[in-house]
């Protein structure tokens, strides 16, 4: 009687897990598709703005400099990183629906998707959105002068400074990333972008004799150095904070569509399990040799040895 009850409860639990996994996959696919469409539209609209500014508007030095330095703003860098992440996410979602996640290309897409999100998208988005709106609320002329409203509509400003945070929040709720995918690579990417961007706006100051952001212009040099440390420190803090925050919403990993199909069709054959173990060992640098192969090697040695 007890065994029958346990079996029924186990089947109900598996059924609930499969249903949850499918729902999450549907929501992820819809979210990634919608977000990618919005980002693509905003990108095309921004390119159109740059190439359609009138001569009268270009006579304003602030607008002229904004158009000139458009590719160098950190906001645009981050928006590009988010667009790349959403593109990879959408491709992986399609592969998951097609049950092709065990292919080599799917593995690479999943790796770069997670590394870009954790190493670049999350820390840069959190820093940009928080710092922009804090400074904007104090004095908007220091980050987004009112004259910019002549060519940049209000909704565009929110797409690149507000909507980016919404993307990160929803992605955190829908996708479990309890731990870094590749800690070393993600930290290097975060630090490299931070140093590269510092070189960019310091080079602009020394060669063009102006700050890329007016907020630097009201600071002394020691204040600029402290602010620079704040930028780097906050980006690394946001990077390391994302994982405990993710674990608050994802206590366990949500099964993929492949795992759901395996539950329906039964466990894989022994040969397939060995292949999967080998495949996973390539993905993780901590696993150098599968336990099944170690056991086989030990068994062969024992059988061939003489007492």
UniProtKB/TrEMBL annotation:
<keyword id="KW-0472">Membrane</keyword>
<dbReference type="InterPro" id="IPR006838">
    <property type="entry name" value="ADTRP_AIG1"/>
</dbReference>
<keyword id="KW-1133">Transmembrane helix</keyword>
<feature type="transmembrane region" description="Helical">
    <location>
        <begin position="21"/>
        <end position="51"/>
    </location>
</feature>
<dbReference type="GO" id="GO:0016020">
    <property type="term" value="C:membrane"/>
</dbReference>
<comment type="similarity">
    <text>Belongs to the AIG1 family.</text>
</comment>
<dbReference type="GO" id="GO:0012505">
    <property type="term" value="C:endomembrane system"/>
</dbReference>
<keyword id="KW-0812">Transmembrane</keyword>
<feature type="transmembrane region" description="Helical">
    <location>
        <begin position="71"/>
        <end position="95"/>
    </location>
</feature>
<protein>
    <submittedName>
        <fullName>Androgen-dependent TFPI-regulating protein-like isoform X1</fullName>
    </submittedName>
</protein>
<dbReference type="Pfam" id="PF04750">
    <property type="entry name" value="Far-17a_AIG1"/>
</dbReference>
<feature type="transmembrane region" description="Helical">
    <location>
        <begin position="187"/>
        <end position="208"/>
    </location>
</feature>
<feature type="transmembrane region" description="Helical">
    <location>
        <begin position="220"/>
        <end position="241"/>
    </location>
</feature>
<feature type="transmembrane region" description="Helical">
    <location>
        <begin position="115"/>
        <end position="135"/>
    </location>
</feature>
<feature type="transmembrane region" description="Helical">
    <location>
        <begin position="155"/>
        <end position="175"/>
    </location>
</feature>
């Amino acid at each position: 009687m007890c065994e029958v009850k346990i079996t029924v409860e186990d089947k109900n639990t598996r059924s609930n897990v499969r249903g949850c996994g499918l729902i999450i996959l549907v929501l992820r696919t819809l979210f990634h598709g919608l977000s990618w469409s919005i980002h693509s539209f905003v990108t095309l609209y921004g390119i159109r703005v740059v190439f359609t500014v009138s001569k009268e508007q270009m006579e304003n030095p602030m607008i002229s400099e904004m158009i000139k330095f458009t590719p160098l703003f950190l906001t645009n860098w981050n928006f590009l990183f988010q667009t790349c992440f959403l593109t990879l996410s959408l491709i992986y979602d399609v592969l998951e629906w097609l049950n092709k996640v065990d292919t080599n290309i799917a593995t690479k897409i999943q790796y770069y998707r997670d590394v870009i999100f954790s190493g670049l998208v999350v820390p840069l988005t959190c820093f940009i959105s928080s710092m922009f709106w804090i400074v904007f609320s104090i004095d908007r002329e220091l980050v987004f002068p009112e004259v910019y409203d002549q060519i940049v509509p209000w909704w565009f400003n929110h797409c690149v400074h507000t909507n980016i945070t919404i993307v990160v929040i929803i992605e955190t709720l829908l996708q479990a990333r309890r731990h870094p995918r590749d800690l070393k690579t993600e930290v290097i990417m975060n630090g490299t972008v931070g140093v590269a961007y510092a070189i960019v706006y310091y080079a602009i100051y020394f060669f063009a004799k102006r700050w890329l952001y007016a907020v630097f212009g009201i600071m002394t040099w020691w204040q600029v150095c402290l602010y620079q440390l704040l930028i780097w420190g906050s980006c690394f803090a946001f990077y390391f904070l994302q994982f405990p925050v993710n674990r608050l919403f994802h206590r366990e990993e949500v099964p993929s569509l492949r795992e759901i199909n395996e539950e329906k069709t039964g466990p894989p054959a022994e040969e397939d399990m060995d292949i999967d173990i080998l495949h996973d060992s390539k993905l993780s640098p901590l696993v150098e040799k599968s336990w099944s192969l170690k056991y086989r090697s030990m068994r062969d040695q024992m059988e061939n040895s003489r007492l």
